[in-house]
Amino acid sequence: MSSPHEFPQIDHGLLRFLTCGSVDDGKSTLIGRLLYDTKTILADTLSAIETSSQRRGLSEMDLSLLTDGLQAEREQGITIDVAYRYFSTGTRKYIIADAPGHEQYTRNMVTAASTANLAIILVDARKGVLTQTRRHSYLAHLVGIPHLVVAVNKMDLVDHDQGVFERIRDAYLDFAARLGIGEVRFIPISALHGDNIVARSERLDWYRGPTLLEMLETAPAAHTEAAEAFRFPVQYVCRPRDSANPGLHDYRGFMGRVESGEIAVGDAVQALPSGRISRVKDIQIGGIDVQNAIHEQSVTLLLEDAIDISRGDLLVKPDEAPEAVKTIDTCVCWLSETPLSPARTYLLRHTTREVKAKVTRIHHRLDVNRLEREPAEQLQMNDIAPLTLKLAQPIFPDAYADNRATGAFILIDESTNDTVGAGMIAAGKSA
């Protein structure tokens, strides 16, 4: 395979991906190997890793130290916090999230998965599919990650045996079918030695598929696989001063991020909740006029008409407007050490809009280890459960399956301002 700097200069778009799986499956080492083999580690960082590895008496460089940045992580040899790393090849840029393998850090894994478009699920070739493998696979499926890659790691410790790989693949496919997971790709690797990570391995010559990096290079970027409705939550109303007349404002602009879809000068837009319609007069990015904007661009929109719009409002195209709802069916991951209580009122933040919310029903608690439903009257930290929430004011969501940005929300404890829950909207009932 060509070295990274020889890739053709083609932009395949940003890819956010996640590494997950059970404890000691080699997630941090895999990321370190990717960065090392693509030559994206700075010289001083590489020197520090070599020094740390020598102090530990290791004969080889410990690449997991690239992501395990907390002192407790280094001391215990585990991943606790989500570590993000960035690298690029000649064809695309990447943001990697290294998720903890321990069950007690499930909330960290859900946080990391919420923005990923691909998940690499590592399986130790010696241990096969474990409970935490199934748990992370379920969570990745639950939060809507569209592409899963199962990397059977540590093949060097099972003599690169094809039969071991195939048994793990068959066991995982049986589990995935029961869960409703569709597309899954499999690859045998050794993160420690770099087999099938960037370069193809002669020791695994029975495997004819692409290397891991080739899978990443060709994976679809976010927002590219289906047409998406335009969604623009307003973050701030901008009124810049006129330098010639300090008492005047040049214009009223609406600042925010295009969460999905695209918008162009001249397009009709509708402001929610007011329902007022206008047209886009100008679009600015960093003070520069542009003709259009696409998903994930932060822009300022200027409209032809003076409409009362403020933070928390949503701009959409009139023929794509979502329905106003005051009751939502959701799936929530509870993040707080304080249990969820149906007797309490929480603050729900959906895009830039905040409303008060109460739990009217906990349908059940999901035991993701056994894939079973259990009755529940409250939720403990890391619990996952379908809930029905009643809202004090309407919101304008999409189903999470259709739009991850406008189908997601967080729950906030009003007394502490702590984020206590993260949820996905399945459906809503009209306001």
Automatic annotation (TrEMBL):
Organism: Thiorhodococcus fuscus
Keyword Calcium: no
Keyword 4Fe-4S in annotation: no
Main enzyme class: transferase
This enzyme's EC code(s): 2.7.7.4
Matching CDD domains: CysN_ATPS (cd04166), CysN_NodQ_II (cd03695), CysN_NoDQ_III (cd04095)
Protein name, entry field: sulfate adenylyltransferase
Lineage: Bacteria, Pseudomonadati, Pseudomonadota, Gammaproteobacteria, Chromatiales
Residues spanning the membrane: none
InterPro entries in alphabetical order: CysN_GTP-bd (IPR041757), CysN_II (IPR044138), CysN_NoDQ_III (IPR044139), G_TR_CS (IPR031157), GTP-eEF1A_C (IPR054696), P-loop_NTPase (IPR027417), SO4_adenylTrfase_lsu (IPR011779), T_Tr_GTP-bd_dom (IPR000795)
The gene coding this protein: cysN
GO molecular function: sulfate adenylyltransferase (ATP) activity
Keywords: ATP-binding, GTP-binding, Nucleotide-binding, Nucleotidyltransferase, Transferase
Domain of life (superkingdom): Bacteria
PANTHER family, sorted: TRANSLATION FACTOR
Domain Tr-type G, chain residue ranges per copy: 12-224
